[in-house]
Amino acid sequence: VIAFFRGFIQESLSLLLWIFAFALTMLLDGYLDPYLSELINNAELKRMLSLILIFVGVIFIGSFLIKVLRGLIHWSGMGGLDRLLGVLFGILRGAILIIIIFLVLPENIKQSEFIIHSKSAPFLNEFAPKIETFFKNMISNKNSAMLDRNIAPIKKT
């Protein structure tokens, strides 16, 4: 329903904006440290504030640009198509979100009668392993890229 009112442009670009903001935040990690050094002495707090400022800044600027673009789309008379595509995109995004939630569930809950006999079980059994492999490959590639840049990956404890 929300996707209908927001439309495809706002839905898709908002999702891409969050991904872009996260990637840019990781890329610019430490960029604001010299500017924050005058205000904050604690290295962890300085890094955290730097990451938050970059992320929020990218989201703020990107949201403004998306609203301008959405206005242009609706002004051009393509608002109906934008809303229809927004609904389809919202359904896809919801399906991916359900798969991700399923992946992080503890194994005992995944094997419960409620999940096994649910209407979504065939869908989850087919697509969850594919999404899991995708994320594992993405994390593996990120760690190897970080090693190439001499940045230590986050270690699991």
From TrEMBL:
Transmembrane segments: 15-36, 48-66, 86-105
Annotated membrane topology: Multi-pass membrane protein
Keywords: Membrane, Transmembrane, Transmembrane helix
Any Pfam family the entry gives: Colicin_V
Main location (coarse class): membrane
Keyword field contains Transit peptide: no
GO cellular component: membrane
Cellular location(s): Membrane
Organism: marine metagenome
Name listed for the protein in its UniProt record: CvpA family protein
GO biological process, one term: toxin biosynthetic process
